[in-house]
Amino acid sequence: MGYINTIIILGGINIIAALGVAILTGYTGLFTIGHAGFMALGGYMSAIMAKEFNVPFPIAILIGGTFAGLCSFIIGYPAFRSQLRGDYFAIATLGFSESIRLLLNNTKTIGSIKLGGAFGYMAIPNHTTVLVVVIAVILSLFFMHMFVTSQYGKNCIAVSQDEVAAQMMGVNLLKTKMIALFISAFYAGVAGGLMAFYFAYLSPSFFTITKSSDLLAAVVFGGIQSLIGPVITAFILVLFPELLRSFAEWRLIIYGFLFVIVMIFRPQGLLGYVEMNFEFARVWWNKMFRRKQSGTQEG
Amino acid sequence: MNKNVQFFRKWLVLLVIGVLLVSSLSGCGSKEKVLKIGYITEQTGVDAYVGAASVPAMQDYVDEINAKGGISGYKVELVVYDTRSEVTDAVAVAKRLMDQDKAVAIIGPSWSSAGIPLADIADTAKVPMVATTASNVNVTVAEDGTLHPYMFRVCFIDPYQGYAQADFAYNKLGLRKAALLTDIASPYTVGLHQFFEKHFVELGGEIVAKEGYTQGDTEFRAQLAKIKDSGADLLVVDAYTFKDIGLAAQQAEGLGLKVQIMGGDGVFVPELLEMAGPQLEGAIVTTGVSDVAPEFAKFNADFEAKHPGVKASIYTYYGLDALMAIEHAIGEAAKKGDVTPTAVRDALEVMTDVQLFTSVVTMEPDTHNPHNKPLLIMTIKDSQWELTETFQPE
Questions:
Q1: A199, B117 in Cβ contact below 8 A?
Q2: Any chain B CB within 8 A of the CB of A200?
Q3: CB contact (8 A) between residue A200 and residue B120
Q4: Exposed, middle or buried, B25 (CB in 10 Å: 0-12/13-18/19+)?
Q5: Chosen from A7, A119, A212, A250 to mutate, greatest number of chain B CBs within 10 A
Q6: Which of A194, A18, A179, A188 has its CA nearest to residue A100?
Q7: How many pairs of residues across A and B have Cβ atoms under 8 Å apart?
Q8: Residue A295 lies in a domain
């Protein structure tokens, strides 16, 4: 079962990080290619908390996430004040995440804490199990769903649709974007923390631009303004390369090819603008297995 | 009619999902006495040359074993998985080898950032792992000094190579002012330079410049210009990827920087000579095993004839070394009538004076490193490797 557990754990961690990107890119319309940086911040912070200060594991994860969220203000405030948008904001996040990685590469010790620089931070306690990840994914999904259906979430959508119109309706652009970025970084930080407690080892080389672009791909591929889309794709992006393992040299080509196909035929993503609800499951269930019961209220 | 179609569709969907899951997630059930040996390597990505050079040779060797009737009657099968040089992939394939394929032993990984987390996984799953070129100390011995009982390696460790490089540069070449060009994201390079610096300064030398870059950089002129100004007479580039030292040498020539260049076993691949042979004339490269040694000439010729377009490199040899160590251990375990992964591990630990592909190896039981592996010092002459000296630890 270890292998299947690994896929579930890695997939679950990817889902949480992708949810973070979904709120920012999918709902608020701000592209990011720097979420690996927030994962690194959250991961290192929660690992330090648990290893050096014996903080209980769930609290360490939350501290890591909050820390990543607070660090997001460093880039968020100046970027949003100067109205960075689209590609420009994406480049800013990329620069931020690369500088975090370089900083970690060059930080051997902080006081008495041996971060290890490029050698990586070792001997982190091992806490992440399938149960923990499944609970974390359910909680993340629940809170994210609450957020996007709240007034704040609607503000985010308004900002992504038309900033000027949103402002005229009384939406505070700066505040809305900062909240979205904070939550987004918090989710990435939590994912980083779960990763730290799964590998029991962290190295700056985990958090490269590849990781960031994988997360962005999950959201763009899964669909904008949708939670269920990125959730499914984030998991598929972990599962699919594993299913194709027997094709070794070909799997990345197949993977890339599918991306191109989806982007050509469904530019809004597989489940773009499809909100998360489980109505389709009930309809499907009725169709498949309960054909005799007619007269379900539809429409 | 419609009912039938719906019924059919329902079962078709379930069937497809079921087949996909079963076929992909479960290893094929083994009927006869076949032992699986896993190999975690890079077949795609920047380090794809590692897998390209090693997988065919190891598969050939496995075929050879099976043609001879297997190891003590056990047929072996090599199961190769690609990691793209990503640690998450390495972890996933290690788990797959342990749980789905029920591998009796695993070869790899080739780099330390993956080796360190995998050591814990090997300990938990109780499947022995033999790293090929993961040379960081903490791969087999954890940071707090405890041994990872299931992790082994067949290469020498970073402190030893860094020490030897400093020793040779100071005592044999008579160089006193060294400049270091370090890949700060690579534990391998950082480790080697740390130990080089320690010993070089101990001897009385001076480090006049320390410049950094990160993996994937292709522009070193800024750092090289500073090194030129520092008046260094030795430039140490212990890169993990041969492209780095090749590019640095090409750009150093353009800047008119004339110093002794030195590299580690990470760059000891034939591709380096094709890339920057003339620029690296006279450069020193340390390595654990040489592909130009006369005893490998026949192997190289046969290998290249059988696999056109592939050249044997140190990754071929280290892969074979690990495979032969496991072959020996399975043989020993089979003599006792018990070929479980734990028995193979026990045999690996007490391995003494066993002829592997490159040399006779004794495993140190307290560190799981090969004991006193000789270190070769190679010079590049006319775009060819030339053996200058063999360095034996005292």
A1: yes
A2: yes
A3: yes
A4: middle
A5: A119
A6: A188
A7: 105
A8: no
Q: Identify the top-confidence range among A31-35, A181-185, B209-213.
A: A181-185
Q: Does the residue A160 lie in any domain?
A: yes
**Window A:133-192, CB contacts with B under 8 Å:** none
Decide if A233 contacts A218 (C-beta within 8 A). yes
B100 in reach of chain A (CB within 8 A): yes
The confidence score (pLDDT) of residue B15 equals 66
The helix/strand/coil state of B180 is: strand
Pick from A102, A119, A288: CB nearest B136: A119
CA dihedral of B133, B134, B137, B142, whole degrees rounded to 10:
-140
- How many Å apart are CA A250 and CA A19, to the nearest integer? 29
Intra-chain end-to-end CA distance of chain B, in Å: 85
- Return the SS3 of B369: coil
Minimal Cα–Cα distance from B389 to chain A, Å? 31
What is the domain count for chain A?
1
- Strand B151-153 with B360-361, pairing: unpaired
Helix count and strand count (H, E) for chain A: 12, 2
The answer to whether residue A74 is domain-embedded is yes
pTM here is: 0.81
Which domain covers residue A73, as residue numbers?
A: 2-289
In chain A, which residue's Cα lies nearest the Cα of B22?
Answer: A243
Is ipTM beyond 0.90? no
Question: Best mutation site among A5, A6, A100, A287 for testing chain B: the one with the most B CBs within 10 Å?
Answer: A6
Structure-token pair, residue B343:
């028995």
- What residues form DSSP beta bridges with B41? B82
DSSP string, B208-275: EEEEEE-TT----HHHHHHHHHHT-SEEE---SSHHHHHHHHHHHHHHT---EEEE-GGG-SHHHHHH
Q: CATH number of the domain that A205 lies in? A: 1.10.3470
**pLDDT tens digits for B170-181?**
988 999 999 999
Q: Test A3 with B99 for CB contact under 8 angstroms.
A: yes
What whole-number percentage of chain A has pLDDT above 90?
Answer: 52
Nearest-CB residue to B82 (from A119, A243, A248): A248
Find where tokens 């407690």 sit.
A197
Q: Shortest CA distance to B88 belongs to which of A156, A284, A275, A9?
A: A9
Going along chain B from its start, the domains and CATH numbers come out as: 34-156+296-363 (3.40.50.2300), 158-287+376-391 (3.40.50.2300)
Q: Is residue A20 part of a domain?
A: yes
**Residue B318 CB burial class (10 angstroms; 0-12, 13-18, ≥19):** buried
The residue of chain B with its CA nearest to that of A206 is: B87
CA dihedral of A34, A40, A43, A47, whole degrees rounded to 10: -170
- Coil, strand, or helix at residue A128? coil
